């Protein structure tokens, strides 16, 4: 063309090239298998469930956290979905695991938690999030994540130490989520719905860098559960289909009656072979004599055991609770036992019932007065 104007065909060609180049440069979003999602969800469930129990004791309120939802996201997607101020709590792992995670919650929820931490009712929290509120929130998160680290230590079977959490307010509409994260860096997002009685009902997010999440998955998922490549699957299938004639001869072994039987189902494999009927009778023991006097030989041998320490336990009563009821326990909770007030308590030695007694007070200390000794026959029965 004689002038500097571009034709419509040239404009379309340039737009197509630009779209193709952007599609090629955009990284492919990774995916998590169902097993990996379940494992990360269980990690978040255990850590945040323990943290919720600690929060219940700190706030003296019932705290509940729902089943987590696991997905892959980026800081850009989080900012575009919720361009508003959030409280971001950073937790670094210094021993046992190397990495960090971010706990993201709404500023209103953080204000309520800080208000309850300061002994108020949480109904009229401070609107402005200042350093005082952040320090109170950081102290709450320090105890919560400390208990979560203890649970993770048992889960990973190693000592896990965290650094003191730091809390800050980030306006996702104008600021990046974290200065150490690129806007398009992939993160593992574990989302929970948290309720604190009638004061808080919102969603919190636990964000893990993808490398940190993969490190934890590698510690929990065994290598044999990894998905094999198609080449490995075909090679394994070919090895199973090799005819018996091509297999190397085996050493001669005594003939087995069931060797020529066709392969059977798992139910057939667990079935016992037919045998002659066997008469089974219960063992009968002669009753022990009703006496506590030891023969001279036994008394002499007993001298060797007099210095052995034994653990004596007094049981006031028992009850059964579900996991949900145990997690709902807070200071001041009362639950009913299977004993009536004033009923004798059980006295155990190394877990075996030996006597019964009643609770007494001696010089402002509790004690137990033995009222009945379990008979020798009953004690021997408890040992069986």
Unreliable stretches (pLDDT < 50, length at least 5) are 224-275
The averaged pLDDT comes out at: 75
Helix content range? 25-40%
Mind telling me the CATH class of the largest domain? Alpha Beta
Listing every helix as H and every strand as E from the N terminus to the C terminus, the arrangement reads HHEEHEEHHEEEEHHHHEHEEEH
Q: Strand share of the residues?
A: 15-25%
- Measured on Cα atoms, how large is the radius of gyration? 34 Å
Shape: elongated
Largest sheet: 8 strands, antiparallel
How many structurally independent domains?
2
Please give the count of helices. 11
Supply the CATH architecture of the largest domain.
Answer: 3-Layer(aba) Sandwich
CATH superfamily caption of the largest domain: CheC-like
Enter the CATH topology name of the largest domain: Chemotaxis protein chec
Distance between the termini: 104 Å
> How many DSSP-defined strands?
12
Q: Which secondary-structure class do the elements indicate? A: alpha+beta
């Amino acid at each position: 063309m004689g002038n500097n104007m571009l034709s419509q065909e040239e404009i379309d060609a340039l737009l197509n090239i630009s779209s193709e180049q952007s599609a090629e440069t955009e990284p492919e979003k990774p995916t998590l298998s169902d097993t990996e999602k379940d494992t990360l969800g269980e990690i978040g469930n255990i850590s945040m469930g323990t943290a919720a129990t600690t929060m219940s004791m700190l706030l003296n309120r019932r705290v509940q956290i729902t089943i987590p939802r696991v997905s892959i996201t980026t800081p850009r997607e989080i900012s575009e979905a919720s361009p508003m101020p959030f409280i971001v709590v950073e937790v670094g792992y210094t021993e046992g695991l190397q990495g960090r995670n971010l706990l993201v919650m709404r500023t209103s929820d953080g204000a309520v938690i800080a208000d309850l931490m300061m002994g108020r009712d949480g109904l009229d929290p401070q609107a402005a999030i200042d350093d005082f509120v952040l320090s109170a929130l950081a102290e709450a998160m320090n105890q919560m994540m400390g208990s979560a680290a203890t649970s993770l230590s048992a889960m990973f079977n190693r000592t896990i130490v965290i650094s003191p959490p730091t809390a800050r307010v980030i306006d996702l509409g104008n600021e990046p989520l974290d200065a150490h994260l690129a806007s398009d860096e992939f993160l593992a997002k574990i989302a929970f719905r948290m309720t604190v009685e009638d004061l808080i009902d919102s969603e919190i997010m636990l964000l893990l860098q993808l490398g940190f999440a993969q490190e934890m998955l590698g510690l929990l998922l065994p290598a044999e559960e990894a998905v094999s490549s198609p080449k490995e699957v075909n090679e394994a299938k070919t090895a199973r289909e090799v005819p018996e004639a091509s297999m190397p001869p085996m050493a001669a072994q005594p003939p087995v009656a069931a060797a020529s039987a066709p392969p059977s189902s798992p139910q057939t494999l667990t079935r016992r072979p037919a045998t002659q009927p066997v008469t089974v009778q219960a063992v009968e023991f002669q009753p022990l004599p009703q006496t506590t006097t030891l023969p001279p030989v036994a008394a002499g041998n007993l001298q060797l055991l007099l210095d052995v320490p034994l653990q004596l336990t007094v049981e006031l009563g028992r009850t059964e609770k579900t996991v949900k009821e145990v997690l709902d326990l807070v200071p001041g909770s009362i639950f009913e036992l299977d004993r009536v007030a004033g009923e004798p308590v059980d006295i155990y030695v190394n877990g075996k019932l030996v006597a019964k007694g009643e609770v007494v007070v001696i010089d402002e200390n509790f004690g137990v007065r033995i009222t009945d000794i379990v008979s020798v026959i009953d004690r021997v029965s408890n040992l069986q």
